[in-house]
Write a structure and sequence with these properties.
215 residues; 0% strand; elongated
Length: 215
């Protein structure tokens, strides 16, 4: 599995390190101005290299964005892992959900590259990007702290995944202040977590009692 990129000054690279430098610079540009702002031409000027140089590492802009999104997911996964592993009286799922919300609002340009662009759809199924994105979902399933009964965990995880994504995207657009319902984004996330855990517990109990969760 590729290691997370070491953060270095953008111009602190030697021959052979241009690929990593391009990814770091593009990641920074996406974080500041969104994935739409990433331009290979602009990155070559910023890094002080010739126009053809990036194409020795990336066939086109889409290939660069795929590599950037994979690195973004690796950084995202590191934060999720830290959140669910640290000692706390709160559930792993709550800590996971808060980490998603915090990352999504703090690094929204990158979050949009990861979840609101064509990067994953255009990547090969066996790509680093797909593997990194799959790890994010696996961490969510782990955070549910529930037994494997059929695909109940995975189905509930998908519902949570979609809900958290919606909260982040609506909040970033200023369309989710919580004032209408007299709540905060954080309280809404807590509601999502509590309802998900209850729904999953009930579904697992029913499945085990009627035998539908076997095999």
């Amino acid at each position: 599995m590729p290691q997370p990129l070491v953060r270095k000054p953008l111009n602190a690279y030697h021959h052979g390190d241009l690929r990593d430098a391009l990814i770091r610079a593009a990641l920074q540009q996406a974080e500041q101005d969104g994935p739409e702002a990433v331009s290979i031409k602009a990155l070559t000027r910023k890094l002080g290299v010739s126009q053809p140089a990036p194409y020795r590492h990336f066939a086109d802009r889409e290939a660069l964005l795929t590599a950037v999104a994979a690195e973004a997911f690796r950084q995202f996964n590191a934060e999720l892992r830290e959140a669910i592993d640290k000692p706390s009286r709160r559930s792993k799922l709550f800590r996971f959900a808060r980490a998603v919300l915090d990352f999504g609002l703090r690094r929204n340009g990158i979050f949009r590259l990861m979840f609101a662009s064509r990067a994953i759809a255009c990547a090969d199924d066996d790509s680093d990007l797909h593997r990194a994105a799959s790890e994010s979902f696996a961490l969510l399933v782990e955070a549910l702290e529930a037994p494997a009964v059929g695909l109940l965990r995975e189905r509930q995880a998908l519902k949570i995944w979609a809900s958290l994504h919606g909260v982040v995207m609506l909040a970033e657009q200023g369309l989710l202040t919580g004032q209408v319902a007299g709540t905060t984004r954080e309280e809404l996330v807590e509601d999502i977590v509590n309802e998900a855990k209850l729904a999953l517990a009930i579904a697992i109990d029913v499945a085990l009692r009627d035998g539908s969760g076997k095999g």
